[in-house]
Design brief:
It contains 24 helices and 2 strands. By secondary structure, the protein is mostly helical. A two-stranded parallel sheet has the order 1-2. Helix 11 (242-252) packs antiparallel against helix 12.
Length: 556
């Protein structure tokens, strides 16, 4: 009997995870190869079938198709949010990491707080804060320029507000990446550039910014992915994008093919972004050594400039976090007069159950992949590991709809329909598997980084003492990975609690979560006082998670 290779289980497991992630992408290609349906023609053509032209209604034929308009909105929003997030994140990171001004340490931490507010909650808060101003201006515009100009004003207002909301929600991704890069820059580089006659602004543009570029591009990619994934904020603010159009094709037109073709359009945009990222970073060497024994020297600036920087940081923090949270607290106080907080306890339990089970499964898969790369340090295994993390690049709406489409395909062609019905429609286990595909990229990096810090000589010493793989893992690696596992679990927990599009599509109707209930109360029922209560619970969970991650990183 031939002996099974000890590497085989690692290869098979990594391959299965890779196939699980690639399945939605493969199905998009498969569905897109089919003949287009009537619903897709309705979305992609200005006059499907030439019906209006045959009826001699040429004046009613729109100038552009729905697909063109939604793609245009998506690209405009994407470019606006990315540009503003880059400016805000880079500027804040530079002053916090390199300048000395009042409240610098507090600002360094507090500027991350907007990450704890889900974008759809931020959108609902600002919609209420600005509705009176918008209505007053709309009446004034209609009185002076007419109804058509007022409609244009309304669209422009909603788009501007959506850009502001998404920038406020996502700029901390760029800020965190840039702050880390700037803090790790060697002071000698900056001093050498200034000794060569470069001014402070020239040093920033020609030395610091190029060295920090890989980290900044990574942060901007996260902003791009989150913007393309956004659904709740767009529905609340009335902005039509490709993601909202996917839901329209799925729910209103009830056409799977059209929804998946729209998903293919978003994936094409993502492919262009990934190629652009590789082009911007590829083929260049970025090296910034730093003497870790000393902290970076902070530049002292004039008092007026120092006060201006502090005021700017406080203003951004106020607009992105303090003002919307204060609005939610005010609404929640009114809501508690009509609704008891105990009403939302089942939602809290459901959300915690989903987040906890999903986090455990993802961490288990992350440890498995990290160990597979450690046991088999071959380029093929590293490639499988990288491909398995591509699920984060798939927007939640696309992943949810592709999952349902794949389920329908398997049910129609196999006899496993009852099991699939139970997993995805009778329980939340299917949603847990979908979270695994989407958030494996969040859980793997801290585990992989922690495992790489463990010297391989310790593994060999453990084997020489007679300990097998499991004994070595539980006695040696697990204690050393404790902090990495904790940090990964907290980040996963926060992301899963906030996830909306994927949860909306796959979650059973009898298993609502804090995210879906908050969205329903804000966007569908417009009961803002009641919706503020679960919204604040979500924000509080996010703040506690950030505090825990900071505590772990400082003790590590």
């Amino acid at each position: 009997m031939k002996r099974v290779s000890p590497s085989l289980p690692w290869v098979v497991g990594a391959l299965l995870l890779c196939l699980l992630v690639c399945l939605p992408l493969t199905f998009i290609l498969y569905e897109s190869s089919k003949p287009s349906t009537e619903a897709w023609q309705q979305l992609s053509q200005v006059d499907p079938g030439g019906i209006l032209e045959e009826l001699d209604l040429k004046e009613e034929i729109p100038e552009h198709s729905r697909l063109y308009l939604k793609t245009k909105n998506t690209l405009l929003l994407l470019c606006s949010v990315v540009a503003l997030s880059a400016m805000a994140g880079i500027a804040l990171a530079w002053v916090v990491s390199r300048w000395h001004f009042p409240l610098r340490k507090s600002m360094s931490v507090c500027l991350v707080l907007p990450l704890t507010i889900p974008s759809y909650i931020l959108a609902a808060s600002y919609k209420l804060l600005t509705i009176d101003t918008k209505n007053s201006l709309a009446v004034w515009v209609r009185t002076n320029w007419g109804q058509d100009v007022m409609s244009t004003f309304d669209e422009l207002w909603n788009f501007t507000l959506a850009t502001f909301v998404l920038t406020a929600a996502f700029f901390p991704y760029v800020y965190l990446a840039a702050r880390t890069a700037f803090s790790n820059l060697s002071t000698s580089y900056l001093e050498s550039s200034q000794s060569l006659g470069l001014s402070s602004s020239q040093t920033f543009l020609k030395v610091a910014l190029p060295l920090a570029r890989p980290a900044i591009i990574g942060g901007l990619m996260l902003v791009s992915l989150e913007t393309l994934n956004e659904f709740g904020a767009m529905k609340i603010l009335g902005i039509d994008t490709l993601t909202t159009e996917i839901f329209y094709a799925w729910t209103n037109l009830e056409d799977k093919n059209a929804a998946i073709r729209l998903a293919g359009c978003i994936m094409l945009i993502l492919l262009v972004l990934l190629i652009a990222e590789q082009w911007l970073s590829g083929g260049k060497r970025f090296h910034a050594s730093r003497n870790t024994s000393s902290s970076p020297t902070l530049k002292k600036i004039p008092k007026f400039k120092s006060a201006l920087v502090t005021l700017s940081c406080l203003t951004i923090l106020f607009l992105a976090f303090i003002l919307p949270v204060g609005q939610l607290i005010n609404l929640a106080v009114d809501g508690l007069e009509k609704d008891s907080i105990s009403r939302f306890l089942p939602l809290v339990a459901n959300s915690l159950w989903l987040a906890a089970n999903s986090s455990v499964l993802i961490l288990f898969a992350s440890v498995f992949l990290a160990y597979a790369c450690r046991k088999i340090p071959h380029w093929s295994m590293v490639t499988l590991s990288k491909v398995s993390t591509l699920g984060y690049a798939i927007p939640g709406a696309i992943l949810g709809i592709c999952t349902i489409a794949v389920i329908g395909f398997i049910k129609n062609n196999t006899s496993g329909g009852n099991l699939l019905d139970y997993l995805y429609y009778g329980s939340s286990y299917g949603l847990v598997l979908a979270y695994l595909v989407r958030f494996l990229a969040v859980g793997l990096p801290p585990i992989d980084a922690g495992l790489k810090q463990i010297n391989r000589n310790l593994d060999e010493a453990s084997q020489c003492l007679g300990h097998g793989f499991l004994s070595t893992f539980f006695r040696l690696h697990l204690p050393l990975l404790k902090l990495s596992l904790s940090a990964g679990a907290i980040m996963l927990f926060i992301d899963i609690l906030k996830e909306l599009p994927l949860t909306l599509i796959l979650n059973p109707s009898n298993h609502e979560t804090l995210a879906t209930k908050t969205y329903s109360l804000f966007a569908v029922e417009e009961r803002y006082t009641t919706g503020a209560i679960p919204a604040l619970i979500l924000i509080l969970a996010g703040i506690m998670g950030l505090c825990a991650v900071r505590y772990i990183s400082r003790n590590k």
